[in-house]
Amino acid sequence: MENLAGFPKREAQAMGLIGFAHLLSHLYMLAFAPLAASIISDMQISAIEYGAALTAFAVVTGILQTPMGLLVERIGGRPVLIFGLFVNSMAFCLIAWFAHDYLTFIAFMALAGVGNSVFHPADYSLISATVAEERMGRAFSVHTFVGHVGFIVGPILAAGLEPFIGWRGSIATIGVIGVSMSLMLLLFGSVIADGNQIKRSSSVGDSLRELFSSRHVALFFLFYMFSSMANFGMVQFSVLALQPIYGIEHVVAVAALTAYQLGTLALVIPGGILADRSSRFDLIILLGFGISSVIILIAGSGWLPFFLVIMLICVAGGMRGGVNASRDVAVRQIAGRIPVGTVFAFVSTGFLVGQALSGVIYGFLLENYPPNYIFYASAVFSILGMITVIFNQGARKTKQILRG
C-alpha cells in the first residue's frame, strides 16, 4: 500500500507523526503574536520586556540546538523529540496557569526554548533514518510544507480562541494539544526508525572536531544565515516599506506579504520532487535565489503598478520555497561521519543568527534610508547566500558523501 505522494505506508505514518510535531513547533513560534497586546496589558509589562521574553526563547533554542543534535545521536531521535515537544508544550501550559509576573513569564519562555531546540536535529535525523534515499527530497519538502502550515495556523488558532477563553485559555489549549501529541508519539512512535546505532561509536569530541573543521558545514551555516537575513526583510519589514513606496494602505501591503508566503508554500512540494531527480543542487539553489533577488530588486524600485508587484512577489516566494528540499538534501549529504542531526542542528542555527542580526540592520535602514533599501538589502543578502553556494562543493555532488 502506498499513499502520501508515493511514500510506502510505514514511511507515510512516520512522516505524519514527525510532521505534526514539526507543525506544532512552528505553531508555537507565532502563537503569541496575536495575543501580545493582551499579555502586555495583563502582566503590566512594556513592549521591550515582552520582546525580551521572545528573545529568551530564541537564544535558548540557538544555544541548545547543536548539543541536542549530539544527544540525538547518543540516545536516539525519538526520545529527544518526545522530550522536546513535551517540554515546549508544558511550558505553554505553565505560562497560562502560573505566569502572573514578568520573571516567571520569561523563565517559562526560556523553558519553551529548551523544548524548541530539539526539532531540527531530531526531525532531520529521524527522516533520514526512516525514508528511502530516492524519496529524501520529497520527504524534506513535505516536512517543510507542514511546518509552514503551522506558521499559518498558529496565529489564527490563538486569535480565534482568545475572545472566548482569554489569552491564557488560548495558550493553555495550544499547550495541551502538544502534550497530547507527545503522548501519541510515545505510544505509536515505533513506526519511526531511530537510525542512531552506527553513530554512537564516535565520541562527542570527535563529532565536534569534524563539525567545526568542515568547510562544507561552515559554508552551509553561512548560507542559512544569509538566506534567513534575506527572508527576514521580506517577512518582517516589507509591509512597512511597501506603504510609502507605492502610497498604499496597510491592508494592501499585507496582501503582498501574503502572496509571498503563499508562493513559498506552493512550490515547496514540487521542489522536493525536483531535488529527488536532480544531481546539481547548487544550480537549483542559484537559479531560485537569482530569480528571487532580481524580482525583489524590481519590487523595491517602485517602477511597476502594485498589482504586478504582488504577482512578482508571489513568484519570488515560490523561488525561495522551491529550493528548500535541495538545500536540505545537500546538507544531509555533506555530513560524512558527523551525525546528521548534529549537522542540521548546527547549520540551522545560522537561521537564528541571521534573525538576530536582521532586526538591527533592517531597523537601521528603515530609519535612515528610503524604504526601497529594505528590498535592496534583502536582494543583497540573497546574493551573498548564492556566493556561499558557488564556493561549496558539497552542494554539487549527490552520489557520494563528502568530507572536509
What does this structure look like?
The chain is mainly alpha-helical. It has helices at 9-31, 36-43, 47-75, 77-98, 102-116, 119-130, 136-188, 204-213, 215-246, 250-266, 268-277, 281-301, 306-322, 324-333, 340-368, 372-390; strands at 2-3, 7-8. The chain has two domains: 2-199, Growth Hormone, Chain: A, CATH 1.20.1250.20; 210-395, Up-down Bundle (Growth Hormone, Chain: A). Helices cover 81% and strands 1% of the residues. It has a two-stranded antiparallel sheet. α1 (9-31) crosses α7 (136-188), α4 (77-98) runs antiparallel to α5 (102-116) and α9 (215-246) packs parallel to α15 (340-368).
Keywords:
Growth Hormone, Chain: A, 2 strands, globular, 404 residues, 81% helix, 16 helices, two-stranded antiparallel ribbon, disordered C terminus, 1% strand, mainly alpha
Question: In brief, what are we looking at here?
Answer:
The chain contains 16 helices and 2 strands. With 404 residues, it is mainly α. The chain has 2 domains: 2-199, Growth Hormone, Chain: A, CATH 1.20.1250; 210-395, MFS general substrate transporter like domains (Growth Hormone, Chain: A), CATH 1.20.1250.20.
